[in-house]
Amino acid sequence: MRTRPSSPTAITVLNLLPQKSNLKFSTSSSNPSSRSLVFTKTPKSQPQTRFSSSTTRSLFTGIVEEMGQVKHLGNTPDGGFDLKIRASTVLEGVHLGDSIAVNGTCLTVTEFTDEDFTVGLSPETLRKTSLIELEAGSAVNLERAVQPTSRMGGHFVQGHVDGTGEIVAKDPEGDSLWVKVKVDRGLLKYVVPKGFIAVDGTSLTVVDVFDEESCFNFMLVAYTQQKVVIPFKNVGQKVNLEVDILGKYVERLLSSGFVESIKPAA
């Protein structure tokens, strides 16, 4: 039987950025809790190692397996950027290079122990997702990539975040919770009533779409509220969003002239 090592196991990861670029957090002196991405020059002689999301080919269901806790988020000595998370369920049978969705973002395991795992973050991941807002102690949704024998309890989720939305309202109704999210209109066009959407990696059903407000809403039942991080977020905080991939494929086919190309000749 295979056992996990008690100390972190390292893996060589791929270089994502040009050698002259480097990513670091900048902390405002007036607001120490405020962080932003900053690119700086790195000498050519200094090697960089980065996780590359372009090599990931995984599928998720949007059914969160557990909530993990961030232990560390920040720069590494070699110019990379790491996120370490305390977990238990998703560590069962874990291997280096496995894919785990963290708040709906597909990331690659680069180190792990019996109590936690580490993933590398690329600049594009930090720009496109809400992961930059995490800090030590933050709760995160975790899901391992599905296997051929897994039940598809949610919908097809790639772990490729399309963008972020902002929680603008949270209203209880009985033991359920209404959540309204404001999103860029470029993404809202893919959101349809009673359609699927992944919010922080949680497969949810859209209830209504409010085009005038550029918002959509959904409802969380009592059970779901206890299993995902969304209820713990405040109005004004960001959530990662992944729209249904089918809508994007249909749009692409229609705009490319595919429909006209398959029409029978007159």
From TrEMBL:
Start and end residues of each Lumazine-binding domain: 59-155, 156-254
InterPro entries tied to this protein: ATP_synth_asu-like_sf (IPR023366), Lumazine-bd (IPR001783), Lumazine-bd_dom (IPR026017), Riboflavin_synthase-like_b-brl (IPR017938)
UniProt biased composition (Low complexity): 24-37
Matching Gene3D superfamilies: 2.40.30.20
Keyword Repeat: yes
EC number(s) on file: 2.5.1.9
Keyword terms of this UniProt record: Repeat, Riboflavin biosynthesis, Transferase
Gene Ontology biological process: riboflavin biosynthetic process
Stretches forming Lumazine-binding repeats: 59-155, 156-254
Pathway where it operates: Cofactor biosynthesis; riboflavin biosynthesis; riboflavin from 2-hydroxy-3-oxobutyl phosphate and 5-amino-6-(D-ribitylamino)uracil: step 2/2
Disordered: annotated span: 24-53
UniProt-recorded Gene Ontology molecular function terms: riboflavin synthase activity
Name of the molecule in the record: Riboflavin synthase
Source species: Linum tenue
